[in-house]
Amino acid sequence: MQLLLPIYPPDTTLINANVGVYERDGLVQYLINGLPVYSHAKDNNDAFRYITSNFIHQGLCRNVDIERAFGVSEDSVSRALTHFAAPPLPIVKIS
């Protein structure tokens, strides 16, 4: 049986052993085990916070992995994760 290894593009920054990220032509692409799962424009910070918080929430990586890979503060990762995991606001119907 042949063992299939994840193959990443050469300019990929590994967040951990399974999750990687690379940027090309202004588009940031996230990979899990070599397969693309998310992408966003390079300057879209809201999408960055959503995607990285989603990875942490799903257990694909840890807070410290995001902090080290992207050079962001512990507080900003914690705030983004808290905002991501918060229940949605109720919809108020005005009649």
Describe the fold and architecture:
- There is one protein chain.
- The chain has 95 residues and is of the alpha+beta class.
- It has one domain (13-81).
- It has helices at residues 45-57, 63-70, 74-85, and strands spanning 13-14, 19-24, 27-32, 35-41.
- It has a four-stranded antiparallel sheet with strand order 1-2-3-4, with helices on one face.
- The termini are far apart.
Briefly, what is this?
35% of the residues lie in helices and 22% in strands.
Helix content: 25-40%
Name the overall outline: elongated
Strand percentage lies at 15-25%
Total domain count: 1
Detail the poorly predicted runs: none
Strand order of the largest sheet: 1-2-3-4
Number of helices: 3
